Amino acid sequence: MEDRNPPAQPAIIPRPEHNISRANISSNALKVLYRLHDAGHRACLVGGGVRDLLIDRKPKDFDVATDARPEQVYRLFRNCRLIGRRFRLAHVQFGQDIVEVATFRAHGDDTEDGDGPTVERAADGRILSDNVYGSIEDDAWRRDFTINALYYDIANFAVLDYVGGMDDLRRGLIRLIGSPAQRYQEDPVRMLRAVRFAGKLDFRLDPATEAPLQRMGQLLEKIPPARLFDEILKLFLGGSAARTFELLRHYQLFGWLFPATEHCLGLAQQPLHPKSLLLQALASTDNRLAEGKPVNPAFLLAALLWEPLQDRMRRHGDHPNDVEALQAAADLVIQDQIRRVALPRRYSLPIREIWEFQQRLTAITGKRPLRLLSHPRFRAGYDFLLLRAGTDEQAAELADWWTRFLALDEISRANALQPPAKGNGKSKSRRRRNRRSTRPGDPIPPSGPDS
Ligand code: ATP
Ligand code: MG
Predict the structure, then answer these.
(1) Whose CA is closest to atom 24 on ligand 1?
(2) Which of 23, 117, 176, 429 has the fewest CB atoms within 10 Å around its CB?
(3) Which 8-state DSSP code applies to residue 212?
């Protein structure tokens, strides 16, 4: 490939000419860098850590690259595990924090005919295993984007740039190293990574990097659902879920991840209502992350798959409050989805509970509202109802009822749920038959929604 040959010398940005300070590097990453260096190895920070520090953002994690082989890294650290087959790595563990240490790799041309490890490829060019070690230059050229291939060298605190990453970082450009179509073919997840970094950093895609996206999305079908699940979490929990979602749709990648959701969005034929459940869920995820609050991925996934659930129930002629119909439809929606993107049970169960809660929250008579309040999924269910209220009038009325109910103290709540005063002429059994029209008393609004 014409432009993949490394230049003889990298651009070297000495310490006084860049802003990376050791004060902003985690002490664990520094420990790893120094120990490798002291043992006579080359040791650099690389990837997102360097990229984010250079643009004054807080890195999510720190990745280390070294000329030490994984086994050598293993021997240097007691708290070290070797992981990965496709891509062998050392994980140095410090409590919850893991510093990932990768050995410099070469891109591994298939022409190699020695006995050493080679890059293993599928017939379609996808790289199945990538364990050919090489020099730091080689390592830079086999990385995905130029802005991800900058090295911070612990030996002299300089930044090394083999691929023009500093310029692209300054210009706000996501540019693949090498020939974009070939690099996407080798690893289609790079398409998602391109969009993820564009969304998260608010960068533009270089035209050549951008051009193949709309026609190459189908390659994502080859990616194992579990890997796509990890990628989905990174796409939507990076703090810019709303923008990333728009980009995924723009580049026609979203439909390869969430086919049923894309189908429903396509049916609407117009830009999503800004108050639509999905856009609101994405925006509130971003807001919560910006405020440092925890987010529940199941909540967002429940929102991503809500329209397919509704669509299935509508097409089946199910009443929205038919419990069994919802459970059956939920099974089908989830089964369908996990053929593309895995949903571990720790997520699929709460997704279903959030959906089921939408029915349970319509039961606003008798003691049921009080019982629901103490349910562990109540908060997520109620928050989800609030999102639905943006575009669904019945949901809005119900959400309003619950909001008022929650605003009451315990005694007022109990009073609010008293049956209507005696002597209204209705027998108990008639009242039960007419449960739908039973309204809790003051101060809950008289026009409660259908249950
Ligand atoms: P984040 O902020 O999400 O951690 P990152 O750039 O550090 O972003 P990682 O997934 O942690 O992303 O990967 C670390 C580095 O490894 C990347 O910066 C890139 O240089 C390289 N890399 C990761 N995935 C690929 C890939 N699929 N193809 C080529 N290089 C990759
Ligand atoms: Mg990283």
Answers:
(1) 144
(2) 23
(3) T
